[in-house]
Amino acid sequence: MSDQAPAIQPQACPKCGAPAEQHKAGSNRFWVQCSKLGRQGNCSAIGQQGTNKKEAIAAWNKLK
């Protein structure tokens, strides 16, 4: 049995319901955005950048 909590996962897009995508640039820039952002569709949902995955996912999951 593990003492670790399950990894936090990004929720579906709060604007259109599409799956979320995690992105990374450099060693400490992470963010989550809608999979239908830009060329894949017309949704504009993008979360705040974080210095790690957990921070970026938490910011995304707070979007309304």
How would you summarize the topology of this molecule?
Elements: E1 20-25, E2 29-34, H1 53-61
Antiparallel strand pairs: 1-2
Protein name: Lar family restriction alleviation protein
Pfam family, one: Lar_restr_allev
Plain-language structure description:
The protein is of the alpha+beta class and 64 residues long. The chain has a domain at 20-61. The protein is built from 1 helix and 2 strands. A two-stranded antiparallel sheet has the order 1-2. Strand 1 (20-25) and strand 2 form a beta hairpin. It is globular, with a radius of gyration of 12 Å.
Spell out the key features of this protein.
alpha+beta; Lar family restriction alleviation protein; single chain; 64 residues; two-stranded antiparallel ribbon
Task: Explain briefly what this protein structure is.
This protein is α+β, with helices and mostly antiparallel strands. The protein has one helix at residues 53-61; strands at residues 20-25, 29-34.
The helix/strand class is alpha+beta
The end-to-end distance, rounded to whole angstroms, is 35 Å
Query: What spatial order of strands do you see in the largest sheet?
Result: 1-2
Uncertain parts: none
Output the radius of gyration: 12 Å
